Structures are given as C-alpha cells and as structure tokens.
Amino acid sequence: MMMIHHHDDQTPGITILGLGPGNGSHLTRQAWEWLQGCREMYCRTRQHPAMADLPETLQVFSFDSLYEQEESFEAVYAHIVREVLALGQRPGGVTYAVPGHPYVAEATSPEIVRQARAAGIPVKVIDGVSFLEPTFSALELDPYPALSLVDALTLGNSHTPAFPPDQPALIAQIYSQIVAAEVKMTLLSVYPDEHPVRLVHAAGTPEEKVEALALYEIDRSQHLGLLSSLYVPPLEPGTSFEAFHEIIARLRAPDGCPWDREQTHASLRKHLLEETYEAIDALDQEDMPALAEELGDILLQIGLHAQIGTEDGEFNLYDVVKGINAKLVRRHPHVFGDWKVDGVSTVLQNWEKLKEAEREANGVAGTKGLLDGVARALPALAQSQEIQARAARVGFDWDTIDPVWDKVREELEEVVQAGNAEERASELGDLLFAVVNLARWYQVDSESALTATNRRFRNRFSYIEKRAREKGTPLSELSLAEMDVWWEEAKKKE
Fold first, then answer.
1. CATH number of the domain that residue 252 is part of
2. Based on the domain organization, do 124 and 137 belong to the same domain?
3. How far is CA 181 from the centre of its chain?
4. Is 318 part of a structural domain of the chain?
5. How many structural domains is the chain composed of?
C-alpha cells in the first residue's frame, strides 16, 4: 500500500501547479503526486476539465467569484495575486493551480513569483502541459523554425499585427465573437480577406475541433470559447520587414553584390534624392502602383544607409526605427498622452513647443534656431514655404491675406524699378518668395503647384511637336502664331 505524505507542514511558501489543457490524464506525474499529498488547493478557476479527476481527498477553493466582482481581467488578476501571496505566508503555505502551464498565457503566475521573491516567500513551480502541445497536434504542426505566439486581446487592441507576416502565427484566447472580430480587423490590415486560417477549439479535450475557413469568416464561427485559438499561415516569402533587412545585409556581405558593397553614405546621396523625386512624380501622376514601387526604392536607400551605419559602428536599422518611434510618441501627446487639442493649428503650435523642449533637453536651446531644421537641400520653393510656415507658427505672420497681396504687388513693382541685373535678380527672388507666401495663405503647396504647371507645359509642348511631325515641318520653321493655335488645341484636349 502506497503511503501519502502531506505537504502542509509548518513551512510557508507558494506552489504553483499546472493542471494541463484537458482532463486528469494530462496531469504530469509530478503534479498528480503533489496533489495527492495536499489537503487543499486554490485554483484560478473551476472551469477546467481536470477538476473532475482530482484526488477525492483534496478540498478545492476557487477565485471564480472575483470575475463577477471586479471591473476588468487586470483587476481580477491583481486580486488573485494578493490573495495567493497572503495564503502563501500561512504556516502551511498554499498550492495554487492554473490551467495549462503556469508560464504559458497565464497572467497571475509570473506576477506571483515576482512578488513572492521580493517578499522572501519560497516559491515552487510544478510544470504542466500547456494548451500549445495539443494545439500543435491538432494542427499537425511543428512550430519550428519560427512561429509567433500572440495574445488575442493585445492583437485586437492594435491597428496592425506586431509579428512578421511571412511567418506563421498562433493567436490564443479568442474566447468570443467580439474578440474574433477585433482580431480579424487587425489582421485584415495586412492579410487578404480570403487568407486561409484554422480555428482550433478545446485542444486536448474530447470536444477538440479544427475549423478551416477564410480570415474574414472567423467571427462567424459558432464554436468560439475560452479554449479557442487561431492559426494564421504565413504570407508568401519576402513580405516582412525582417526579410527586407536580411536581403540588405546579404547584399552588403563579403560575398554580396560588388556595387552595393562599394557604396558609402556620400555615394548614395544622389540616389536618395533621385528616388525621392521619382516617388513624388508617381504621386503627382496619381499612379499608385508606381508610387508603391518608388517607395520601395526609397526604403532600399534607408536600408543601405542603416546597414553601412551598422558596419561602421555608427547606428543600425533598429536605432533608426526606435528613434522615429520615440519621436512620434513624444510629439503626439494628444494621441499617446492626455493633452487636448482643438485642431491642426493647435497641434502645430504644440509641435514647436515640444521641439523647443527637446532642444533644451539636448543642451542646444538658444544655439539652434527655429529655421535650422529646414533642410537646405530642399528645392527653393519648398524651402521658402516651410520657412514661412514655421515662422507663422510662432506668430510671425500677417492677420489677413490683404497685406500678402500688397507685398506681391510691391515686389513686382520693385522688379520693374530695378536699376541693373544684380538688383533685378534680387528683386525677382523677393517676388518669388512673396508669391510662395501667397500660395501658403491659399493653402496651396507651391512646389506641387509649379510641378503641375511644368507638367501641363510639357504635355502641351509635346502636342505641338506631334502636330509639327504630322505636318512634316521642323519646329524652328513654324511661326509663333501657328504654334499658338496648336497650344490652344492641347489646352482644350485637357
């Protein structure tokens, strides 16, 4: 006859035990032997199939009532942690049981361990089979070489998935149609509607079920519950930022591309400018496939600069990403903090105040002017408009548009009155600056406006060339009157 040794001696402490994913057959031998030696056990919830198979001598208490009393899961978990810590300080300590494994999708266990260690309370963890093992069996899936494990509530509260889409993902705790709908909306920001996915319900229990369906259908499933997970197969290779990063590093590797390997920050400068202008051209043409391609070319330039920075020990791609993430959060307290704004103008005014605070924090307040951040490499029209906009944000601007018009007329007259070529060039610059300000007041981007005019001129002049070829006459032999007729034809065609 086997002797059962009870653990509830006079030593305080906390034993956290995993009950496995299903009935008692999933309990580990260590867990079963421990429970046989216990007089009482506290469990996070009785809603678990192993409850019916526990030793008959075991008195079971649960925290299920807290789910009704508290306002949120976080409050429930915090309450449980407090209770278990208090129980653990009793002379006989406490055994606290959780579904699955104590460290897999279980919010209370890590926090109990952390606080117990800080308080000097002994802690013992008895492993359990998690929901993952039977889920992998149900999917007939080996999670290696890569699988993202994702919490449904965290994902549902996000705008985009925080894992690479060219790797598979398992999303746990899709316990309701509402949660499934939120998860679906986040995933649809990256995956197509018809992306094939699989819902796994009650893995490791007799009620286990695998549903194959399209992503857009997941919130229509009639089987969703506390034990539901979603498996999302990967998109095609090369659809993640990580894959892009690896390609860039491969191109710069010793056995990579000779051209890419010899590039420097300085040699890439012209390419960054060219690719940016090509993207702007595609944007102006409203050619979205071309814009997507050109944005990829700009991303290539960013990746190459970051890889060179990595090799030279200056900075890496994640420094770039971390820097812009921190800056965006810091400069949008009305989104990520508790600042209140009443429109775009307030946002821009706050933006300048935040930038000034950053300059003070960096020790450059007073040494770096408001306009120092305007890139000198910008085209002249764009630079003028940005200079004027920044000055206006701190109040250096007229109250109405009338003085703006007066300034344009004044500068035009000064061009007329200019006494020599040098004066005329200076006054023409002032006139252009005044016209840019007029465009700003009308909320027109002067650089884009002139680009559009250039494009119209190109198109109309190309029409004149086409008509001249049809007539068989060289352009140089046409009169201005003849060309003007065709110019007007081109305008009508527009």
1. 1.10.287.1080
2. no
3. 20
4. no
5. 5
Q: Looking at the structure, tell me whether residues 465 and 392 fall in a common domain.
A: no
* Owning domain of residue 226: 133-232
User: How confident is the model over 1-10, as pLDDT tens digits?
Assistant: 344 455 655 5
Question: Residue 227 belongs to a domain with what CATH number?
Answer: 3.30.950.10
In a domain, 396, yes or no: yes
Provide mean pLDDT across the span 355-381: 74
98 lies in the same domain as 169: no
Q: What is the pLDDT of residues 391-445, one digit of tens each?
A: 888 888 999 999 999 999 999 999 999 989 999 999 999 999 999 999 999 999 9
Is 85 in contact with 116 (CB distance < 8 Å)? yes
Can you say whether residue 343 is alpha, beta or left, with left for phi > 0 and alpha for psi between -120 and 50 degrees? left
| pTM for this model (two decimals) | 0.74
DSSP designation for 313: T
Please provide the average confidence, as pLDDT, over all residues in the chain: 90
Give the residue among 187, 193, 189, 194 at the shortest CA–CA distance from 168.
187
Q: How far apart are CA 92 and CA 11, in angstroms?
A: 5
| Beta carbons of 191 and 234 less than 8 angstroms apart | no
Tell me, what DSSP letter sits at residue 202? S
Query: What does DSSP assign to residue 369?
Result: -
pLDDT at 134 (0 to 100): 95
In DSSP terms, which residues pair with 198 in a beta bridge? 212, 231
- More confidently predicted of 374 and 439: 439
Could you tell me which residues come within 8 angstroms of residue 494 by beta carbon, excluding any fewer than 6 positions away?
Answer: 456, 459, 460
